[in-house]
What does this fold into?
Amino acid sequence: MTAAAGGAVAVVWPFIDQMNPAADTLALASIEFDLSKVVEGQQVVIKWRGKPVFVRNRTPKEVAAAVKDDSASMKDPQKDAERVKPGHANWLIVGGNCTHLGCVPTFGGGDYGGWFCPCHGSVYDTSGRIRKGPAPKNLVVPDYAFLSDTKVKIG
Amino acid sequence: MSGHSTYEPKTGIERWLDARLPIVRLGYDSFVDYPTPRNLNYWWTFGGILSLCLASQLITGIILVMHYTPSADHAFASVEHIMRDVNYGWLLRYTHANGASMFFIAVYLHMFRGLYYGSYKPPREVLWILGCVIYLLMMATAFMGYVLPWGQMSFHGAVVITNIIGAIPVIGGPILTWLQGGFAVDNATLNRFFSLHYLLPFMIAGVVILHIWALHVVGQNNPTGIDPKSKHDTLPFTPYATVKDGFAMSVFLILFAVFVFYMPNALGHADNYIEANPLVTPSHIVPEWYFLPFYAILRAVPDKVMGVLAMFGAIGVLFALPWLDTSKVRSMRYRPMAKLYFIILLVVCVILGFCGAKLPDDQVIPGLVTGITPLDNDLNSWVWLSRLATAYYFAYFVVIMPLLGLIETPLPTPETIASPALSHPATTPAGATADAEKKG
It folds into this structure.
């Protein structure tokens, strides 16, 4: 019995696993990005692993608004400082897909000065935190590091 | 298929074949001699129309594949190539794209017919469930087909729908990656959708055969909802049903042609003529019209997992309907209260369709701000309208249908299908006959 079940699984598994990401898809490397191209108040969208990443150079006013809301009631509570790198509070780098169903939120929409997702009306603040609508999580902060003051490596 | 076969092979070759493969007998018993209730109205013609739709989609689809390139780099261009360069390519593609809408128009009428006349009630439960399976397969096929042109709506529609799987706690993420074949919707996703879009219609065809088989075992329901009792209650399929269905198909094809030739893009979305761009989502993303009510239900629930469950539940509840409806009377012609709630359900489904097409926070009544904002949305918003409509949709199936069977006093049903037509109105039970005649 056990042997037969094991055999069946061994036969079926390749047919299931072939749908998983292929080796070349998995091999997608990290990317480097030159921040000097992004002026204050601007957002640049770059493509990483087939998905958009928002690189936003926040104005001091936007940073202040994000910090001020740190203690506001939120679905996915997180401080603004936890979402940026120390000393680089103006740089917000987040995944550009709504955590609801993956649409790309629009920059500058919604009531919180951040993003508005056109698909199902989720609203994110200037820190990319979910404030309103069906999305359950804040915009994801990817793994990244500052190589210098003007250069980041994502992934 | 049901009952005794009356087929008699007339020529030598027919006798020879009948002894080896009685396929002519099967056709004769199913589509010539098959007894149909004599009182079937035009709501009973959509089965034939749906077969026509399936055939049309299969033929145009197989031809379109001869010119289409399933690749993220070339799909969009190859669809434009079909539209501009392939001889009659525009006709084939418009027929296929609008054919999907026609298919859904017909299937919705077919389903509401079943809901009204109690065609899901014993002994037709399996018949009904097979129909629900076909509907599910149709939705999967339509969704994957819509992705293939690789336009903006295609792409972001695929992103949204596949991410629905990601809503499942813990295992959702790995399953999503498995389904997309990568970390985002990309070439791998397009290719597997193409493969499945080609496969599923044949699975539909298979389930359709089971559906027709089950139909021919239990026999057709009819507007009175009572079973045929004698030969007086039925007519042979040919010529009566074939001629009637043929006429209905012709009328339906006129509607189809109006869309294909005069307004081929009326049911589509302009954004899908822009090539897919993963970095920008169209400002107003909506599914095709036939998914709008379910889309409204998805958005009505403020929680992601619950919203997804509600959307699938809206379809799932149809499978359980034969056991949720407790009434002994099949046809709502004799169920005055059920009829009322059914009409409200119809209106609610249309309302849900409208809600699905609107931005959730927009006002239903322009200019009015109630200031009452339960769950963070103003009461005068499409999202609140869809919440109320969603509540009624589920209440109809899980509360109203079970309770109504217990508390409702149905009108008297006629003795036989033929009796209202054959006997004098004065001699039949009050109400039932006259009512039936008016509604027929």
